[in-house]
Amino acid sequence: xxxxxxxxxxxxxxxxxxxxxxxxxxxxxxxxxxxxxxxxxxxxxxxxxxxxxxxxxxxxxxxxxxxxxxxxxxxxxxxxxxxxxxxxxxxxxxxxxxxxxxxxxxxxxxxxxxxxxxxxxxxxxxxxxxxxxxxxxxxxxxxxxxxxxxxxxxxxxxxxxxxxxxxxxxxxxxxxxxxxxxxxxxxxxxxxxxxxxxxxxxxxxxxxxxxxxxxxxxxxxxxxxxxxxxxxxxxxxxxxxxxxxxxxxxxxxxxxxxxxxxxxxxxxxxxxxxxxxxxxxxxxxxxxxxxxxxxxxxxxxxxxxxxxxxxxxxxxxxxxxxxxxxxxxxxxxxxxxxxxxxxxxxxxxxxxxx
Length: 354
Prior knowledge:
Structural class: alpha+beta
Mean pLDDT: 88
Shape: globular
Radius of gyration: 20 Å
Strand order of the largest sheet: 1-2-13-10-16-6-5-3
């Protein structure tokens, strides 16, 4: 798979407007061109590189600084804001070796019985959610860090809304066919920290940074550091994963997620991906190549917006995508029911905490 060239999403994410009929017509054409290319790449690869989204380099840098500030805390301090377990969104801190993502795609994971993943994460839910508030420090420790993350979360939500509107246009749907179905959204911002790890262990059958999986939600917006290790399944060669190198500048990666696959009845399949040792550190040909010299893979950081539907919305295929010759591939289920089903699989070993 050749490295994708980033699409410029400014026709949908730049909230300035045209100043006349000619400019509006030109903008409409730019939007149609972007939407068509965006949907085509989601169908072809499961993910798209994007620039021109309106989130500045400074805002991204501040978010990653807040990320570092949180994960640099001692473990016992981070555990003060633990994910509470049970049938609820997985908000708060989750320690390493907790999630069981290898259970999502066992035919791709080919994991050993003692499989684990080496990743800590912190997940922030909608600040307005009073039913499942995000745990934070009772003494309001790191208040500015929290405020930075909430601001970044809001920025990402706006971008994601524009991208779903682009998907509507690219699929030839009426405006609002998707957005009116799921708003207000119940998105989550997840901070991932992968501690340094043994290269040999990451390439073995028992440990990955994240095992092959697809994301919960409609689409996911990913920002990552320059370490690498993200791989997507090649749609033309099932079971084979290809490296997706870190972006340049403010580039982000957007991937199709489970809900979008279900709504479109498989027209846009979710992008299956994993995180392991960077491609430059994987190969050892016995001739002293780069991979042969590396014993420890450096730490890695990423921030992901999981753009999700409101809980009561159906995640069954929409009527536009169910035909006589293409019946529904997925059954009726609400977004909350689907989330609980997936979380039970991922966090089944966590009993609800008080």
